[in-house]
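Practice record 12: protein with zinc ion.
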Amino acid sequence: MLIFACLQCVPIGPPGGGPDPYHTYVRQSIRSVQPTMQAGAVQLAGVVSDGGSSGGTSLSSMLRQVNLTVDMVRKGTYGRKSARSMRPRYITIHSTQNYTAGAERHSVALKRGALRTGQRPGYLIWHFTVEDRMAIQHMPTSEQGIHADFDGPGNRSSIGIEMCEHRGNNRSSTTERTAKLTAVLMKKNGISLRNVVPHYHWPRKGKTPANKNCPHFLLDGGRPGAKWRVFLSRVNYYYRRIDS
Ligand SMILES: [Zn+2]
């Protein structure tokens, strides 16, 4: 089996065909946060207030809502061969641009070493893959992944989350589940909202363009804009709901 993750330059599958449910979702969400935005609460670098009350959900309850399965790549193999330790300071959001494989197929591919980088050490790996109904963890968050920028700070200091895009997968549900998982990871690791970044944030040395259009459906014209701010507002919403 050969499947591609978002680090690859050329995605497989139909480019951008079909309706995009997230666009509808974004319009609704923008409307719902509009009063807050008008009140000046939305600032640079994703410091977003949802204007709602905080608290109400335990960390474990939020994690249950994520519906996370742990299915680790075996330590010492493929992407976990070097098993370099990491203290996560960022969370990097990707989308797979793979229109045929969901979370389970990505998990199997990672465990079999089917996803190659074309560079040393040769295998892609990231921490979580999320689809509309569940999420899978592939490696501990205390280990560096290979998903963002080769030997750059994105790989050295960030937890990598891939959102699935296979046919039949609901994009809005996937994005919401990702927002919940991100909120849990922020809480667990003491990561602030300004350190929740799109893959775009990390320039890739030697690549043109250096800043990848990823996750493409949360960017505007290939850059973080209104859609990304809406995503951050959803992350912040769930983060604030978690009891400290
Ligand atoms: Zn990416």
